[in-house]
Specification:
This protein is mostly helical. The protein has one domain. The chain is built from three helices and no strands. The termini are far apart.
């Protein structure tokens, strides 16, 4: 599965504990990453400063669902169930 353009659910719904440029303490769940651009694309994509956890998050149907809204809900539920 390919990432959906303009989705960014994986950059919003989960918490990220590793430092992100502009977010040195990481990111809380439900907060958009400061590295998202206006089109919800990652400004760090392909750069060495992109956190490994972000690069290692694969687009999977079980996590991404059939829409951005479903992806936000699914990832949010995974976050709630694992914290």
């Amino acid at each position: 599965m390919e990432c959906r353009t303009g989705c960014a659910a994986c950059c919003i719904a989960p918490s990220i504990s590793s430092p992100i440029p502009g977010m040195p303490a990481g990111k809380p769940a439900g907060v958009p990453c400061v590295q998202l651009d206006e089109a919800l694309g990652c400004k760090l994509f392909g750069l060495p400063s992109r956190p490994a956890v972000c690069g290692g998050f694969p687009a999977l149907e079980d996590v991404c669902g059939d829409s951005r809204e479903e992806a936000l809900w699914l990832i949010g539920e995974l976050e709630r169930l694992t914290t």
